[in-house]
Amino acid sequence: MPGVNFQKILILDCGSPYAQIIARRVRDLNVYSEVKPYTLALDKLQAENYQAVILIGSSYEKPNPQVHQKLTKAIADILTLELPVLAICLDANLITADQAKNIYVSSEVPAFKQTDSEKQLLQDFLFNQAKLKGDWMIDDFIKNKVAEIKAEVGNSKVIMGLSGGVDSSVAAVLVNQAIGKQLYCIFVDHGLMRKKEGDQVEQMFRKQFDMNFIRVNAEDRFLGKLANVVDAEQKRKIIGEEFIRVFEEEAQKIENAEYLVQGTIYPDIIESGAGDSKLIKSHHNVGGLPEDIDFKGIIEPLADLFKDEVRRVGLAMDIPADMIWRQPFPGPGLGIRIIGDITKAKADLLRDADAIYREEIAKAGLDRELSQYFAVLTNLKSVGVKDDARTYDYTLALRAVKTVDFMTAEPAEIPFPLLRKITKRITDEVSGINRIVYDITGKPPATIEWE
């Protein structure tokens, strides 16, 4: 990271699914950490000026001979740096007796849930063994990043495809703090946003932050392209491609824009694959923006931060808390929460039901306890009764999960009286829905979203 003026440590991923979690725990102790694959060349590690190293592997899996050889070499290389080293969940066969003398070894597998024993282990290593200061502070990050962006951009114009989600909103406000009116934010409203969300996003960026905010109301255009399409992947493809076309058209109206801002965060980069750990998802530019737009540079101001740190940065820059704690929302929006064909009537129906669900969860004080919660409009209709008359309306599914990293998730145990209250409100207030079901499936075997 350019302009670093704080200590940092290396988390060397030796094939563990927990490297990202350990990195976050270290940062919780105000020590900056970076995750790198064990395959990274020694000269690149030497150039980074780390103060300590944590080796993390999986003690449950024996590496194959080829991987074993690479890991053994990586550990030997790390020890040549003569830094304090902590080994967590590492196969004992990878470390020789002589090497073990220079490594602080954790023989137990940490729970990775910020238990007292895990926290004590990290604190002891970082502050007693490595003698670190704990000087990673969010306010310092903001100052450094603002200065860095100013130096890179100069007087150039900058554009951004703004989704209105947490990451893109914080990135936009941070860049705006650095260069003000040189930034142009393009917000494509595809008509598949949550209730009043487009207006709320516009209100914040225009009135509170006085930014160059370009809203493109493209509901008819998107719904026209999606007419009679029922396949989920086809929906995603259509929405993604149309977003690109709309963004291109608007971006071309801004002459001499030399930089593009993206809301990439650190997990996006880690999850693109580190070492031989399993690839979780491909990292690509936000919203599937076209790769052939010619920019002098890409600005990713949040690329060093985890999600919780992104929120802390946003709150420090006076972004409203309800925006910072907004529920995760997929790029295709309600397009993948409407099973079957998409129409404006269905989108409006789901918008109203989802708004009631989110309102009641917030009133019950569960909005920050649950990792994600939302409603899905199924394509199933069934018989019901309302006002002594027969109805034949849609079934709505409610979903709520708890998760640490969104790679796995457990269904949330929402109190039954609250579910009954939500159900009554939706069936009373939203015409067209007569049955509510609650999804209690974890991930795996299900995904968090339905499509």
Topology:
Elements: E1 8-13, H1 19-28, E2 32-37, H2 42-46, E3 53-56, H3 65-79, E4 85-88, H4 97-100, E5 104-106, H5 116-129, H6 138-153, E6 157-161, H7 166-179, E7 183-189, H8 197-208, E8 212-217, H9 219-226, H10 232-251, E9 257-261, H11 266-270, E10 297-299, H12 307-316, H13 321-324, H14 344-363, E11 372-386, E12 389-402, E13 410-411, H15 416-429, E14 433-438
Parallel strand pairs: 1-2, 1-3, 3-4, 4-5, 6-7, 6-9, 7-8, 9-10, 12-14
Antiparallel strand pairs: 11-12, 12-13
Helix pairs in contact: 6-7, 6-12, 7-12, 9-10, 14-15
Structural notes for this entry:
With 451 residues, this protein is α/β, with parallel strands linked by helices. The protein is built from 15 helices and 14 strands. The two termini are 37 Å apart. 37% of the residues are buried. Residues 274-288 have low confidence and may be disordered.
